[in-house]
Design a protein that fits this description.
Rossmann fold, binds 5-nitro-6-ribityl-amino-2,4(1H,3H)-pyrimidinedione
């Protein structure tokens, strides 16, 4: 059986990170995790571009422009949507996830989905570099693995 797998080698590859300013004290930890992961897997600083957007709701439009530009091998989206007292959370989280999935399929550019969707601030802190790991690292790894798989298919 032939198996196609992605090597976790980021050397020579270009990455755009789209990060929301909303909940930036959480999102900054996700950015650090993603950048650290990519560099430790061979990416060079000049091949990394960070784009800041207001909130998670705006990540799909930035990801779309970046994917359409054809300059990036993968786009990694980072944000933190934390439930409040109103249904706003549900709309922001679901439109963000749907929008990013749509961009990935339309442009055939891997998108790392590193947008936390949490019920509490504590859950977000846990997933931004403490006991729940770092979702930014996971998103960077998923984007890298996916781009390395797709280039072989
Ligand atoms: N944006 C987030 O990234 N996280 C949130 O938790 C959040 N909440 O809860 O409101 C949030 N809202 C802003 C939204 O993403 C847009 O920036 C805003 O609605 C303007 O379009």
């Amino acid at each position: 059986m032939k198996t196609i797998e992605g090597k976790l080698d980021a050397s020579g590859k270009t990455f755009a990170l789209v990060a929301s300013r909303f909940n930036d004290f959480i999102v900054d930890r996700l950015i650090s995790g993603a950048v650290d992961y990519l560099k430790r897997h061979g990416a060079s600083e000049e091949n990394l571009t960070l784009v800041r957007v207001p909130g998670a709701f705006e990540t799909p439009i930035a990801a779309k422009k970046l994917a359409a530009a054809g300059k990036f091998d993968a786009v990694i989206c980072l944000g933190a949507v934390i439930r409040g007292a109103t249904p706003h959370f549900d709309f922001v989280a679901s439109e963000c996830a749907k929008g990013l999935a749509h961009v990935m399929l339309e442009h055939e550019v891997p998108i790392g989905f590193g947008v936390l969707t949490c019920d509490t601030l504590e859950q977000a802190i846990e997933r931004a570099g403490s006991k729940g790991g770092n979702k930014g690292v996971e998103a960077a790894q998923a984007a890298l693995e996916t781009l390395r798989v797709l280039e072989q298919i």
